[in-house]
Amino acid sequence: MAEFSGEQKLRIVLESILRNVPKSEQCQKYGITEAQFDRWNHKLITDGGRIYEEQKLSSNKLHVSSFYKLGILAKFGIILSLLINLAGLSIFGVWLLTERNNKETPVENALVVPKDSVTNIELENPIFTGGNQSGVNVSNVQNGEIGSFTSAFDSFPNETRPSLESLLADPLQLPTPGVLSPVNPDDLNAEIMLFNKTYNGRHVVYVLDASLYMIENNSSSQRFEKMRNSIMDSIINLSANSYFNLVLYWNLREAAALGRTIIRADQENKKLALDWLGSLGGGADQLKEKRNRFYQKELLFANPLPGIIGPWYGVSTAVSYDPDIIFVLSGNTAGFSPKEVPNSHYSRLGVSPLSVASASVDLNSSTDHQVSELTRQTAFKWLSSIESVSELPSNPAEIEEIALKRLGLWGASSLSNGGELSIPWKKVFEYFLTGLEFNFSEVPRSHFFVYLPEHTAWPYDLSRTVEDFAISSKGSFVINPDLP
Q: What is the pTM of this model?
């Protein structure tokens, strides 16, 4: 309960009297009980007059004290002055009494208030004493019509009009609510930046192709470095409230990651990922050594089914972390070196490791044993008709090689000794879908960014299945993204 000063108690009682506010409303307004209000009102009625008596008594004591300090002549002069004034006042009183008796209507000098009313107080104020000069209807006040009584304040001149607000208690101050701490936008909606584009998500997994064909020449190495740096920039800009992981995959069924679960994007984990990515520069030997620096496939939580290879092996590992969004940065998947792939990777694919081995030997031989002369000439004319001469090399043999690569007749997909090295990517995709442990509608948004060397293309079945999967998951499929 709030503590009130004596002045506040007086103003609360006066406000109820002058504004005709019911006692119950006044008590509710200031949070007091009716018993308290009655005590304050009774105190005002019974002890209000003592204010002036104390002042008079104090004044008399002062004058008496001063009187005794005066000399004999000064005391005689004061006594004589008092006697003369007393005689004058007596004469003036007799005259005033005579004049009042001669008047037909007596003047009311005091305001009489019933004892059982809350307005039973006597105040020394021009409104209550000194004649009815303001036009106050005293009978209305006696009958309890306080509203008509207070309207008399308007009849006073502006210079002498009493201020009602000066008699009222100040309203109680309500407690000021504390200011809540601002909401961090990162808590509501985390954003991920990659390739100068913003994606919404808080749980992200980056999947990077770390196969040797990614750095087979200077052009490929520069492109791989830019892709790696783009992932590093994205990780640096992750919100501290986000979670992420980094998966590196190579060959057909090799992968490594930062850990078995998704990790918080704090400074320590970010530095771990940046150090790993930064160590991937250099030649093939350094890439082989650094890419399996962390958890290898045997230690990862995910265990993709046999037959899931290449990009789908990396995506399967990423999906096991239950992210909101997946970024897959891949290269020329069909350009893997068969001699570096263990025979167990071809399980369930229907590809004979013996035919793969023979194909890898024949790939180093001349194309004359693989493609007929008519096919090579047709490919040369086809490419020359669709490309500008300035964009093609000057050597016709190089143009033939580029044309055959673009048509899928060069490299790992070419014919060799009557056998064919061809990965059934459609079947690989079916194995991937079978290995999902949830409905396809729950697959995270997957964005594929594929770097391909000039004049090369992904096998049709691989390109089609990846594009269909990306679109179905509300992701995207981009060939040779415009890297900064």
A: 0.55
